[in-house]
Amino acid sequence: MNLLIVEDEVRLRNALANNIPWDKHGIEVVGQAGNGMEALRFIDRKKPEIILLDLQMPEMDGLTLAKQLRQSDPLLKIIVLSGYDDFAYAQEALSIGVMKYLLKPAGDEEILETVLEAAEKLRSELEQRHNEDELKQRWEQHLPYLVNDFLQGWLKGKFELWEIEQRSKYLQMNMPKGAQFAVAVVDMDPLPDTETRFSRKDMSLLQFSLGSIVQEYLQSTPCWVVSDYAGYTVVVYKLSGDEAPKEALQRINVLTEKLLFTVLSCLRLTASAGISGTIGGCEDLNKLYVQAVRALQNRIMLGHDLAIPYQEVQGREPEFVLQPNLEKALEIALETGEENKATDMLSTLWEGGMAKAENIEEIHEHILYFESLFVRMIQKQGWSVREVAGEDYVYFHNHRELMVKEQIFIWLQRMIKAYLTHARERRKSTSHDMIKTILSLVENEIDQEMTLHAVADRLYVNSSYLSRLFKQETGKAFSTYVMERKMERAKATLQEGVRVYDAAAAVGYRDVSYFTRVFRKYWGVTPGEVRS
């Protein structure tokens, strides 16, 4: 701790500085001043934490100096050492924050003890302030997350009115009584097929970027920006009481349109927004949020890059007509691998249902219809929907990813291609297994006569299918392949010194003469010449 001694009497000042063993107790005397003005210059340069101060001094007395110092640094510890045993002096000194009032001639031990007490008190105050600052800093760091969590629950309608008022006050949200709100829900549109910078896996990153852009764009607008459970960016606009509801909503619509243009300029990707159709108070926030979400869902019919206001729908009962003949035709086309016909059947089913859908509820009904249709056809083959659909599987359990009719139709077209591709792969895999079995039979039973018909019977398939499959997979006719393997095996056996008769028997020839003719025709030499 640093100590400044302010005393106009030179001998006493030197005695205080030199006769007390300050350094043994961690106290350093950083200066001595003879009056208040001189003390101010020392304090500005040396920044002492403790001051030992006389009251009666020329130029500036001790009380005046103490008042000034306490105003500029409330933590500074001031100990008065005075020769005036006057209660009024002591009372005034203590009232302005002097820690202790000592009377001359105070002993060295008493002065040292008082200075050490001041040092300990200062340490305690600094530690407390540090802890308070740290707690305050932690609170400020966590406050945005606490506000976000509270707003999420509020939007979902989890709180009573008294809880909203209590929590908003606790979270310093500055919400005046009778406050009015409007809500907008903003979301990134689906990535276009031509997009090469990002994929569906990057959507969480894009949603985060969207939230940051909204925060920055609306920083001067009275509102709260929160991310909801579904990943949407939600803007809760705080409205002034002197603005008419329709004017407020019109202003928010214009502001939201400009916001979407900013998103497009920053990300070169579009976003859309749904805007509540009314304004309301604290108790209405959940209703306003639901309106905004429903408005956003209408981009399925209206398209992308739109700020969509909520409109109350006086809807008709949805009409849903089953078309079993078309469903069967689609199934047959898929099973027979006719992609063009399957696509035509899909288009006809689409035109008879989804194309006529007029609201979100009807669109969701038709999504469920097509999902169940494909699930049924896939599972009928004993396949896994996830395995067939691949990356498109996400749409089977997350309709929010399907945001416009065109996107839904393209997804269904991809499902046709995925079904046919999977079927081809399955057939190819089955074919490979069958070819492997045939090749193994040839190698293991090369010492026997082997015909295509006999192998087909063993594998329970017809010989025509097996002949075409074998040639397709190996590039050779079955008989040609068998001949090649027999001749190669016979040559290798003869080169080992085996007799011609035994070599013939080893590859399934019982007639040595016939074997010799075949061998010579194939290799251009007789078996005996190879053996010798």
UniProtKB/TrEMBL annotation:
It is found in: Cytoplasm. The modification 4-aspartylphosphate is found at residue 54. It comes from Paenibacillus chondroitinus. It holds the Pfam family Response_reg. Keywords: Coiled coil, Cytoplasm, DNA-binding, Phosphoprotein, Transcription, Transcription regulation, Two-component regulatory system. Residues 2-119 form the Response regulatory domain. InterPro entries: CdaR_GGDEF, CheY-like_superfamily, Homeodomain-like_sf, HptR, HTH_AraC, HTH_AraC-typ_CS, Sig_transdc_resp-reg_receiver, Tscrpt_reg_AraC-type_HTH. Residues 436-532 form the HTH araC/xylS-type domain. This is Response regulator. It comes from the Bacteria. Residues 109-136 form a coiled coil.
